Amino acid sequence: MKFNKYLAMLLGATLFLSACGDDSGEEEAAEGEESAGEESSGDAASLETNIVTIATGGSSGPYNIIATSLAEGYSSEFGVNSRTQTTGASAENLNLMAEEKVEMSFVMSDALTQAVNGEETFEEPIENVQQVAALYPNFVQLISTDGAGIESVEDLAGKRVAVGDQNSGVEIATRAVLEAHGMSYDDIEVDYLGYAEASEAMRSGQLDAAFLTSGLPNASVMELQNSVDLKIVPIEQEAVDVLSEDANYFEALEIPADTYGNEEAVPTVAIMNALVVRSDMSEDDVYNLTKYLFENLDTLSNAHQAASDINLETAQDNAVIDIHPGAQKYYDEQ
Questions:
Q1: Which of 251, 271, 291 marks a domain boundary?
Q2: pLDDT by residue (tens digit) across 218-250?
Q3: Residue 9 lies in a domain
Q4: pLDDT in tens, 265-319
Q5: One domain, residues 130 and 142
Q6: CA distance 153 to 155
Q7: In angstroms, rounded to a whole number, what is the distance separating the alpha carbons of residues 241 and 244?
Q8: What residues does 209 pair with on adjacent strands?
C-alpha cells in the first residue's frame, strides 16, 4: 500500500513538472513570434486604411492587368486588403469614387476632366477625387478587316461599329473622334461593346469596325489578328488638331510598326491615363501608395509593357486635376 501511494505521488509530480515545462515552452514561442511580428511590422510602412480597392476596366485590358499587379503589391507591402474591381472603365470608375465604393481608379484624362467639371455624361461635378499621377498614353485604336472597305474614319458611315462600353472612356473618346470628322452616332450602327466582346464580334463577322482605347498592345487585338486580316485605320493629324482646340489632353502619336503585324506605323490620337484616389484618404496613406507605385515600376512593366511609359516627370506635368497632397509630398522629395 505504501509503495503504491509513493508511486502515485511520484507520477503526479512528474506530470506537474512536465505540464509546467510545456507552458514555459509555449510562452517562449509566443514571445518569439510576437517579437518577430513587431520586428517585421517595423520594416514596412503601414496604412491607416485597411482596404484599397482599385477600379479598372475590362478583364483583358491594360488597366486590369497593371492594377492587379499593383494591388498584389499593396497587399503584400502594407498588409491590407487590396484588390481590383472589373468595370466599364473611366466613367463608371469615377462614379464609384463619388459613391465612395472604391479607393483608387484608373481613368482616362478626358473622362476625368469632364467628371470634375460636371460635363457631358456627368450631371454633377465629382468633387472627392484627386490625382496621384498621369500614367501612360491610351492609344485610340480603330480596327477593321481588309475586306470591310474602311480606309478612313469617314468610311465608317453606314457601318456597324463597336464604340466601347456605354459611358466608358473608350466611348467618350469615340464620340470625340467622330465629332472631329463631322460625324456622330447617327452616321453609324452603334454597338456598345468592350474589348473582348468587340474582338469576338469582329471575328464572327458581326462588326465592320471597332474603337478600342488602351495602352499598347491590347490583348484582345493581339488575339484577333491571329484569326482575321486585321487593318488599323489611321486617325490623321488634321483631326487631332480639331480635338486639341478645346482639350490639351489629346496628343498625336503613332501605333508603332509590328504592334499588330502592321508593316508601317499608323497615325492616331492618344489620351493620357490617370491614377486617382479619393480626396478623403490621408496624406500619409497616399504618400505611401504613391511611393510604392514609383519604386516598383519594373514589376508593373513586367505585368504589361504599357506601364514602361510611366515616369516621374510626366506623372506631374500631364496631370489634369489637383494632385493629392500625399502624392505631392512624394514628388517634392524627389
A1: 271
A2: 999 999 999 999 999 999 999 999 999 988 889
A3: no
A4: 999 999 999 999 999 999 999 999 999 999 999 999 999 999 999 999 899 999 9
A5: no
A6: 5
A7: 5
A8: 144, 161
